[in-house]
Specification:
By secondary structure, this protein is an alpha/beta fold. It has eight helices and seven strands; from the N terminus they run ββαβαβαβααβαβαα. Strands 1-3-2-4-5-6-7 form a seven-stranded mixed beta sheet, sandwiched between helices.
């Protein structure tokens, strides 16, 4: 069943869809929306169950979020778009690219990962433990159930085999922080398996779009033009 996804839109030109990370909302892209609206029709979306978007009854998975994106584009008559995904948003964008490459102009993957092994251990281990703990109480507590769903995205998803990326011929920018929570070797693995990709590292952590936005925006702008 289709749900209403909350979104904000600004500017004209080629569509540029922004997909935020786990547990966040579209306000993460506060430094990108105005900046890119000078040349693009910028559309920032709250993922299902995040921000002001409905949760609905469908499975809470990266694949479902990619299906939601397809329906959103259909509803808003967006034939093709540039897609910029951060963290879980990058995982949604990549999953979407595997399903509907014909709907993408250019793809930007910021701090994306193929599986939990791509995340540095000191970050991932507490996530796994938190997920197990929340899952144990999910039947008794609504908060624990929500927590288990959110953490589950980082434990069980997106589960993409590196070899599958060789089917994504869309021009792609793989971008991450030099001190990202995603292992550098994992970001390079994604880049190496994409046939038409560029790789950029920006000094900073996982949140370069928010904290190093001037350098980040410049790299995105260079790639898109």
């Amino acid at each position: 069943m289709s749900i209403h996804l909350h979104y904000e839109e600004i500017g004209n030109g080629e569509p540029l869809i922004l997909l935020h990370g786990n547990g966040e909302d579209l306000t993460y892209f506060t430094h990108q929306m105005d900046y890119f609206s000078k040349k693009y029709r910028v559309i920032a979306i709250d993922t299902r169950g995040h921000g002001k978007s409905e949760r609905g009854t469908e499975p809470f998975t990266i694949r479902q979020f990619a299906l939601d994106l397809y329906k959103f584009m259909e509803e808003h008559q967006i034939d093709k778009a540039n897609i910029l995904g951060f963290s879980d948003g990058g995982n949604i964008a990549l999953t979407f690219a595997l399903m509907h490459p014909e709907r993408i102009l250019k793809l930007i993957l910021n701090g994306a990962n193929l599986n939990g092994r791509g995340v540095k251990a000191h970050i991932q281990i507490p996530i796994v433990l938190g997920y197990k703990f929340a899952s144990a109480f999910a039947q008794k507590s609504e908060d624990a159930k929500k927590n288990a769903e959110m953490l589950g995205l980082m434990v069980n998803d997106p589960n993409i085999e590196p070899s599958k990326l060789q089917n994504v011929f869309v021009k792609t920018l793989v971008i991450a922080g030099t001190n990202d929570m995603i292992k550098k070797s994992h970001t390079q693995l994604i880049y190496k398996n994409l046939p038409n990709a560029e790789l950029v590292f920006i000094e900073g952590n996982h949140f370069i779009a928010n904290k190093e936005y001037e350098k980040f925006n410049k790299a995105i702008e260079t790639f898109l033009t």
